[in-house]
């Protein structure tokens, strides 16, 4: 299939991206974000969940939870290319919100073939926030791996790990196994028998938790046992692309902020950007970001127009974005000099978000290993 010009990034996608940038510049500027997320530098502080709920309501009013929902279920039905542009702006602002988690969950729900999944999509379009509770204790996202099981009475028992923004969302998509296979279940966060246990994590712009389910019976079946793995596999390229886009946006902020510092910080009677030891890393940051961004939009385009290539393209994008995030984080701190590793310098917020995103759903090494398994296997099959 022929892919469209500019990855299919049209005027509507540009309007969404521009609107997001303006809103987040006005309501989530670095100074405001630092006051909100880094109010306390005490190492022994309690695990917090801080976010601007008024800003979240503005996002809902603008229809951002509905952008990935098909039109027939009350959404805008925008392509993943447009969603990637939105996610890039979320990363650029490092905004604390459940939107990334909700967008990822939307693609899982859309891959499920059930009336309950269609009802969930309508609720998401109306503003419901949802997160995925689909990872086991080892951090495995593999479709068959889960520590939650369906008991004889049909209730869920076990623990879902590494649940993103668990204390911000209204519902969870839980992966659970039964003798018939893996299924997906919608659980409201206030359901009887469900306990959210916060995790202490590096990223100050998110919260993470493990969710204990002790006989949770009030569930809706989104994907029947045996069909859950298929839905997760179908949604995974979109999830990897969204997280990669977030990293690209954050890396762009790191580059621009560090470049501005290099233009204004004077040493030896010259701006430090005059020196090659500063210039060259900044150029390397730019090159890595541009390469990762191209792969992100290529992956989004493949998901929209060439599904058979979506997984390979998404893993390439996540690998490149993870590598760029790691490099840009290190250089942004280094090139800020002595102030770069202090709490008062804003860049630590983006550094920590990048390190979290880097390993979320697999870092660069993991993605390349999965690519090798798939592509070498394919070569072997055709040899």
TrEMBL record:
Gene Ontology molecular function: any one: acyl-CoA dehydrogenase activity
Pfam entry (one): Acyl-CoA_dh_1
Cofactor(s) this protein requires: FAD
All copies of domain Acyl-CoA dehydrogenase/oxidase N-terminal, residue ranges: 11-127
Keywords of this entry: FAD, Flavoprotein, Oxidoreductase
Location of the Acyl-CoA dehydrogenase/oxidase C-terminal domain: 243-375
SUPFAM superfamilies for the chain: Acyl-CoA dehydrogenase C-terminal domain-like, Acyl-CoA dehydrogenase NM domain-like
PANTHER family: ACYL-COA DEHYDROGENASE (PTHR43884), ACYL-COA DEHYDROGENASE FADE28 (PTHR43884:SF20)
Similarity field: Belongs to the acyl-CoA dehydrogenase family.
Entry protein name: Acyl-CoA dehydrogenase
Source species of the chain: Nannocystis exedens
């Amino acid at each position: 299939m022929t892919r469209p010009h500019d990855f299919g990034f049209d005027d509507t996608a540009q309007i969404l991206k521009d609107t997001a940038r303006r809103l987040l510049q006005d309501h989530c500027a670095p100074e405001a974000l630092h006051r909100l997320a880094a109010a306390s530098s005490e190492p022994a502080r309690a695990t917090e969940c801080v976010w601007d709920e008024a800003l979240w309501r503005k996002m809902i009013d603008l229809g951002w939870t509905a952008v990935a929902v098909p039109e027939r279920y009350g959404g805008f039905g925008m392509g993943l290319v447009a969603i990637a542009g939105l996610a890039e702006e979320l990363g650029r602002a490092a905004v604390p919100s459940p939107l990334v988690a909700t967008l990822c969950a939307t693609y899982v729900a859309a891959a499920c073939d059930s009336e309950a999944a269609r009802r969930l999509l309508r609720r998401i379009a109306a503003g419901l926030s949802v997160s995925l509770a689909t990872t086991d204790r080892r951090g495995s996202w593999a479709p068959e791996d889960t520590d939650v099981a369906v008991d004889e009475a049909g209730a869920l028992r076990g623990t879902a790990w590494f649940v993103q923004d668990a204390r911000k969302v209204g519902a969870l998509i839980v992966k659970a196994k039964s003798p018939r296979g893996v299924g997906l279940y919608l659980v409201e966060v206030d359901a009887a028998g469900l306990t959210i246990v916060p995790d202490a994590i590096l990223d100050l712009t998110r919260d993470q938790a493990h969710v204990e389910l002790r006989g949770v019976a009030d569930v809706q079946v989104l994907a029947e046992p045996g069909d859950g793995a298929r839905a997760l596999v179908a949604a995974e390229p979109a999830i990897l692309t969204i997280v990669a886009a977030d990293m690209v946006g954050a890396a762009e902020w790191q580059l621009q902020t560090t470049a501005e510092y290099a233009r204004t910080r004077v040493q030896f009677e010259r701006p430090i950007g005059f020196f090659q030891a500063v210039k060259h890393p900044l150029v390397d940051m730019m090159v890595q970001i541009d390469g990762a961004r191209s792969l992100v939009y290529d992956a989004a385009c493949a998901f929209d127009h060439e599904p058979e290539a979506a997984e390979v393209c998404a893993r390439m994008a996540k690998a490149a974005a993870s590598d760029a995030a790691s490099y840009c984080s290190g250089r942004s701190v280094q090139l800020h000099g002595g102030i770069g590793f202090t709490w008062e310098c804003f860049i630590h917020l983006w550094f920590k978000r990048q390190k979290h995103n880097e390993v979320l759903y697999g870092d660069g090494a993991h993605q390349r290993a999965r690519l090798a398994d798939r592509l070498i296997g394919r070569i072997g099959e055709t040899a």
